[in-house]
């Protein structure tokens, strides 16, 4: 066994004579795993009463004969044209109330009984036909789930979901605060999905009733999860033990992946960073995906070997970047490094999307040579990294409910973006070289010395008590502005801000100010002055001491950062959106208290199992001192503690003790 290497392969798009060249090139590149059948519903079911597996049979048989492992997809990420023609109710109704016709993908209503029945039947027949093939190592359901629907079927499904959640209409009215604007509901049938035709007046984030919209987001995430469960159950009837997954999209706002965790056998995700300049973006998202199932290794299901085709501008990965970012994924917990796509398609919207094999089928391109070199490295590494865990004593809480509630709120500021703030705190830990998990608010926190909870807008269940326990036993908990504001129904606590977090933080927030982007208030740490922006909470200590203070406006001299002794530990509160230097200072002080800074400065350092990865994302060599006796995994070179090591630009060293 080894780290799996390969990716999405769509041979149904080309004449079979091309397949011979494909497999010759797969051999040259060390490709051992192929994801097939991702968009084949129209191929395998060309009509309502007709199933034709002849092409997929040849694809699976050829891959098996060539010794490749197969991740077999159900093909249900887009429904066929005949289905939309015969059953128009299968297509989605969008936020503006328009029923779509056949086209694109993510085009199915998740509440449609017809869609659920037919997609489940496809999955059942596929599993029945191929489950005994030993080459199949995983099942891939759907593809990049997404696409909300607002049709009458979804309205009925929403009402059923509300009955299960709340039990009575009276409880719904309480949760949604419907005495406001005469919105009290008397019967379930009066409840409508929140859309541009009902509660929203200026796009999906501007709603008169945040509670209604929040619950619809929860419902839609669960509705798509029900589709996944349908197909997984159908697969399980013939394949009781082979892992079943679907490809997540990182920090994807519409779907709460934490709600899906129990139903996935393994997490996989598609890594398409917004640019080629911020490796911390990928580090954060790898950590988030690893945290979905409590630190289990994940699959990097898709990445481009060169360029994407889905944005206005699609930069090319520079030489060495694909290899470096692939090893970064492995460092953070990936047990598979897979690409989209193996061969470039000739037409449609992804014909210019990067591929291992280009349109000409050459083996002498830079991209192909780099892929082949990476394949050789992974082969040489064997099973030394497979299944390894990433130890961490720092946790960052990530909560889709807080994300949704914060960005739906009409105040204090719509300029605060949940993900940006959380990423900034993760970046500070990442830059300091400390191991960090990104975990749900329901996670067991007993193994962490530091828990960071930036913009934890919503406090649910016993979370406040569990955070207090972290501090009580000697740990440190940090939270920030706009935290502890609302309960699980998105209603404000009848208490001083930050609500249930107040005792731990030792403060109360008396007022808050919000200003446009570009307006800053200097924040003074005594030996360092940084900037605060967007939101400025006016803090009154209630036991906490000031670590840094505002310098301008009528609240000059009041705390912007506080620290409170709690039990054997501390609670830190940051009352404004600090710039990165300010966040680095706060997080650095917390890490130093627990001696958690990594020993390697200037490179990204990640521990996985017995291996330490040193990744240089910069353009210049970096010299570091080895902190343990080890061997470089791929070369076998011996390293002694105290040796000086050079990590070349866009290179990686993997030191195994």
UniProtKB/TrEMBL annotation:
Gene3D superfamilies membership: 3.40.50.880, Glycosidases (3.20.20.80), Golgi alpha-mannosidase II (2.60.40.1180)
Catalytic reactions of this protein: Hydrolysis of terminal non-reducing beta-D-galactose residues in beta-D-galactosides
Domain Beta-galactosidase trimerisation: 392-596
Top-level taxon of the source organism: Bacteria
InterPro entries: Beta_galactosidase_C, Beta_galactosidase_Trimer, Class_I_gatase-like, GH, Glyco_hydro_42, Glyco_hydro_42_N, Glyco_hydro_b
CDD domains with a match to the protein in the record: A4_beta-galactosidase_middle_domain
Keyword DNA-binding in record: no
Protein name: Beta-galactosidase
Organism in which the protein naturally occurs: Paractinoplanes durhamensis
Phylogenetic lineage: Bacteria, Bacillati, Actinomycetota, Actinomycetes, Micromonosporales
């Amino acid at each position: 066994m080894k780290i799996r290497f390969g990716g999405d392969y769509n041979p149904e798009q080309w004449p079979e004579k091309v397949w011979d060249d494909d497999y010759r090139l797969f051999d040259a590149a060390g490709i051992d795993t192929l994801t097939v059948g991702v968009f084949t519903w129209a191929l395998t079911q060309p009509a309502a009463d007709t199933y034709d597996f002849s092409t997929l049979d040849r694809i699976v048989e050829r891959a098996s004969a060539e010794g490749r492992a197969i991740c077999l997809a159900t093909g249900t990420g887009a429904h066929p044209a005949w289905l939309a023609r015969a059953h128009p109710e299968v297509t989605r109704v969008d936020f503006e109330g328009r029923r779509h016709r056949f086209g694109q993908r993510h085009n199915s209503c998740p509440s449609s009984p017809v869609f659920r029945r037919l997609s489940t039947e496809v999955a059942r027949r596929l599993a029945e036909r191929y489950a005994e093939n030993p080459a199949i190592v995983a099942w891939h359901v759907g593809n990049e789930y997404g696409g909300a629907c607002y049709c009458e079927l979804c309205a009925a499904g929403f009402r059923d979901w509300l009955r299960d959640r709340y039990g009575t209409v009276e409880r719904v009215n309480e949760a949604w605060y419907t005495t406001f604007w005469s919105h009290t509901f008397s019967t379930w049938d009066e409840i409508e999905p929140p859309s541009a035709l009902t509660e929203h007046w200026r796009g999906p984030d501007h709603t008169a009733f945040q509670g209604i919209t929040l619950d619809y987001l929860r419902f839609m995430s669960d509705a798509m999860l029900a589709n996944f469960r349908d197909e997984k159950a159908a697969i399980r009837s013939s394949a009781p033990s082979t892992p079943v997954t679907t490809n997540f999209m990182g920090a994807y706002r519409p779907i709460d992946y934490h709600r899906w965790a129990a139903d996935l056998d393994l997490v996989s995700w598609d890594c398409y960073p917004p640019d080629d300049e911020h490796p911390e973006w990928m580090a954060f998202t790898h950590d988030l995906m690893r945290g979905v199932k409590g630190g289990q290794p994940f699959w990097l299901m898709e990445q481009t070997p060169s360029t994407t085709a889905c944005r206005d501008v699609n930069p090319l990965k520079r030489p060495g970047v694909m290899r470096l970012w692939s090893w970064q994924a492995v460092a953070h917990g990936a047990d598979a490094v897979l690409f989209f796509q193996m061969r470039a398609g000739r037409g449609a919207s992804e014909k210019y999307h990067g591929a291992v094999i280009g349109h000409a089928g050459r083996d002498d391109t830079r991209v192909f040579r780099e892929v082949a070199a990476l394949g050789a490295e992974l082969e040489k590494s064997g099973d030394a990294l497979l299944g390894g865990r990433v130890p961490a004593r720092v946790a960052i809480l990530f909560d889709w409910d807080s994300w949704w509630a914060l960005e739906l709120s009409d105040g204090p500021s719509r300029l605060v973006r949940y993900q940006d703030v959380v990423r900034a705190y993760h970046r500070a830990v990442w830059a300091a070289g400390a191991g960090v998990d990104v975990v749900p608010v329901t996670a067991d926190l007993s193994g962490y010395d530091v828990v960071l909870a930036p913009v934890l807008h919503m406090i649910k269940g016993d979370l406040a008590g569990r955070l207090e326990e972290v501090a009580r036993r000697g740990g440190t908990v940090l939270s920030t502005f706009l935290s502890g504001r609302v309960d699980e129904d998105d209603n404000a606590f009848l208490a001083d801000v930050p609500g249930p977090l107040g005792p731990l933080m030792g403060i109360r927030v008396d007022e808050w100010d919000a200003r446009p982007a570009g307006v800053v208030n200097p924040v003074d740490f005594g030996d360092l002055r940084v900037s605060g922006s967007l939101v400025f909470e006016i803090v009154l200590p209630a036991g906490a001491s000031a670590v840094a203070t505002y310098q301008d406006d009528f609240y000059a001299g009041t705390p912007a950062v506080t620290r409170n002794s709690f039990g054997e530990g501390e609670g830190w509160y940051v009352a404004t959106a600090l710039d990165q230097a300010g966040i680095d200072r706060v997080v650095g002080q917390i890490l130093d208290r627990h001696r958690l800074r990594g020993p390697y400065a200037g490179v990204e350092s990640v521990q996985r199992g017995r291996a330490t990865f040193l990744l240089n994302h910069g353009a210049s060599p970096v010299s570091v001192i080895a902190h343990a006796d080890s061997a470089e995994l791929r070369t076998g070179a011996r390293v002694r503690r105290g040796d000086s090591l050079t990590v070349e630009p866009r290179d990686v060293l993997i030191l195994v003790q």
